[in-house]
Specification:
Blueprint (H helix, E strand, L loop, with lengths): L1 H21 L6 E8 L14 H9 L1 E8 L2 H9 L7 E2 L3 H9 L13 H5 L17 E13 L22 E4 L2 H11 L9 H14 L3 E5 L2 H7 L5 E5 H10 L3 E4 L7 E6 L8 H11 L2 H11 L6 H6 L2 H4 L8 H4 L10 H16 L2
Parallel strand pairs: 1-2, 1-3, 5-6, 5-7
Antiparallel strand pairs: 4-7, 4-8, 4-9
């Protein structure tokens, strides 16, 4: 009898060990979501809901979540075919580039019914996707300056503070050419979308002048460096800045008086997605009022979703960092996709700036 019991227990242990490896939950499909790093989706932290887990449970679809730190990094992955994704969330000008190069799928909006009812009219048919066939707005925001009030005692009003010698080795600059050149071009009074090579070269020269005070060129690392007070002042996105300010009360944020970039990030499906219908279901899920609200609250970015906006508290709606007033927004410009010749020229100058000396 003991031998029989021992045999049964042994079989049970073997089956249990086998199931711990191979008897996991069976999903109908797997979606690979490729999104910006940092807190750019509600994932269950800080008492938020876990959006991807909710989607998995509702639709029996496994979510694999991956991140990138710039539009250019994401583009390189797609262009080089180094990875397969089902959902990406590029910025406006990059959406236009991906459309032009045939790297994203046309969407079947019959699978995204909440687009028509929940997306604000002023976010439909945007310049980066004028026929509204390839993208759905996810969030919007603007770029500014985050700084440590204990070190930077003066009022932060202009981009030129990022060139101030008294903050030498305490300045963090964007590590992507489009945003870095935007700062210099705006300071010089040029369009952020200029194709004039003389103006672009002047902006490059301005960035070269700044190099002596710059501690380093970063993207996601800016988040931790400013919170940990490893630097005093940095360029960054307003939504992330709000989250950083909650983490460190010494931090503050300002929009430069010269103006800045206003951006929209939008959800797209890369060309060749093996799970396009499920990806469209995921996009529609993101458009649900409570889901869009959770994303806006966690990320600190503005929502283009009218149903979610109505659920925001009044303090959030009146927050001038999150929702700049119309007067300031008139000073802002949105990126457009530049000709490949200009992109190449800017990139060459950017490499020279970072490697010179």
């Amino acid at each position: 009898m003991k031998k029989i019991v021992s045999l049964i227990l042994s079989v049970f242990v073997i089956v249990s060990l086998f199931c711990s490896v191979g008897c996991g939950k069976k999903y109908d499909a797997t979606l690979i979501v490729y999104n910006w790093g940092g807190p750019y989706m509600a994932e269950g932290s800080n008492d938020s809901i876990d959006i991807n887990k909710m989607f998995e449970e509702r639709y029996n679809v496994k979510i694999k979540y991956r991140t990138y730190d710039s539009n250019e990094a994401m583009y390189a992955k797609l262009k080089n075919g180094g990875a397969e994704y089902d959902i990406i969330i590029p910025s406006d000008y990059m959406v236009a580039r991906l459309i032009e190069e045939g790297l994203v799928e046309k969407l079947d909006f019959s699978n995204i019914p909440l687009f028509e009812s929940n997306i604000m009219d002023n976010f439909k048919n945007p310049t980066y996707d004028p026929t509204n066939e390839y993208s759905v707005p996810y969030s919007w925001g603007a770029v500014g300056i985050i700084y440590n009030k204990e070190v930077v005692k003066e009022e932060v009003k202009s981009w030129d503070i990022l060139w101030d010698e008294k903050y030498k080795d305490n300045v963090l600059m964007f590590n992507n050419s489009r945003d870095a050149f935007m700062v210099a071009q705006t300071m010089l009074g040029y369009s952020q979308n200029t194709t004039n090579k003389d103006e672009i070269k002047a902006a490059a020269d301005k960035l070269s002048e700044q190099k002596s005070v710059v501690q380093g060129y970063y993207m996601d690392e800016i988040y931790d460096k400013m919170i940990n007070e490893d630097a005093a002042i940095a360029t960054y996105y307003a939504g992330d800045a709000l989250v950083m300010m909650e983490e460190n009360e010494n931090l503050a944020f300002a929009y430069p008086e010269e103006g800045t970039n206003r951006f929209v990030d939008a959800v797209c499906i890369p060309k060749g997605s093996k799970n396009k219908k499920y990806a469209e279901m995921y996009i529609n899920f993101l458009l649900e009022a409570e889901i869009a609200l959770a994303n806006s609250e966690v990320t600190g970015y503005c929502t283009p979703n009218s149903a979610a906006f109505e659920l925001l508290d009044e303090d959030t709606k009146s927050n001038k960092i999150m929702y700049p007033d119309d007067e300031y927004l008139k000073k802002c410009e949105s990126y457009i996709h530049l000709p490949s010749e200009i992109n190449t020229y800017v990139q060459e100058l950017w490499i020279n700036i970072k490697t010179e000396g």
